[in-house]
Amino acid sequence: MEYKGTPERGLFGATLGFFTGFAAVALFGTTASKFNEALQLSPAIVGLLVAIPSLSGSLLRIPFGAWVDMIGGRKPFLVLLWLSVAGMAGLLGVTHFLYPDRLNASMVPLILLLGVLCGCGIATFSVGIGQVSYWFPQKRQGTALGIYAGVGNLAPGLFSLILPFAMSGLGLSGAYLGWFIFLLIGTLLYHVFGLNAPYFQYRSRGASIDQARLMAQQVGQEVFPKGNALQTLAAAGRNGKTWLLVLIYFTTFGGFIALTAWFPTYWKSYYSSTVITAGLLTAMFSLTSSSIRVLGGSIADRVGGIRTLSLALGVLLVGAIIMILSSAYILSIIGALLLGIGMGISNAAVFKLVPQFIPNAVGGASGWIGGLGAFGGFIMPPLLGEVVSHAGLSGYATGFIMFVILAILSLALTYALNKSLAAQPQFSETGAAR
Question: Does residue 80 sit within a domain?
Fold first, then answer.
């Protein structure tokens, strides 16, 4: 029985789909000022607006990631991407027919709902992790997943860079029209290039589990679903270390999503930057954090996940302190860069530690960590906005106390993980068997 595709094509398709959907992190970050001008939103509601795509983008990672173990990644990818297309079509309609004069406060729930739909594309991360993992042998998975996550994570930064120029030249509805076309083309291209690994192709053609596994092994597939997806989620949930890693990832990846969405408002409101300058500075943060994630994985391979995570969280902490104390433009830029570096390296180190601490339920643990960790991207911007509502302009700086607290808590949790690792003599700090 023939199967279609190669691991390289599987990686290309998954990366294309993730890049297409993950851009929604930047959906309202740059454009929030336009909606604010029309609707006179409070800082807290602005925070909710920029965060709302991350609500569906984080929570849907858990069930859709588990769904991959049942049928492969192709169908979950397409469902999430088409939901994003529907949301973007609705947002395009609102901005084209109602913005700015016919927009009023009664439209806010509709805009938030459309943001939730657009955010479905963010959840493709967990789908692609599974899809790529099944295509590649274990010795090549690190490189493949590094490419997948590194390239896909570039999307919000690039859109934060492009969107201000698009709005300047095309207006708000024109910018969203361009995004809709991009999303539609990306979804159609995934439909062409996205393929399940051989095992799932054989299963879809009627082969039994044992037959599909045997045939897939004969063509080089090494990784297969282990039991019921809900069982792996339950097994990971019973392991306390899963929740320590969830909280750390809440700080690092949730923080990355939150600040990618919040920074355009921060730079425009706190330093009176133009929309284009705010977009450029946000892109600097996002692209730095995304690109350095690949380097973070390499560092973690060499010196160990715990050491890498501890160092990166220290960098994050220093960056957050600078953001609180600074009222100088250049110093705040340095602080933002340090935040991006710390978060990017930490994100890579966390997933280095997953098979080390939860070896019997890696897939389930990845679902909890990726989903609930990314939920920080929804929680943090409204809280930052609430600080501004109470403290005024200075709240844009003092709000970063949140990241100081989270960084210190994450360092304490990393110390706890290290102590538990010391009680496992069969493993070295780098995760290799002794």
Answer: yes
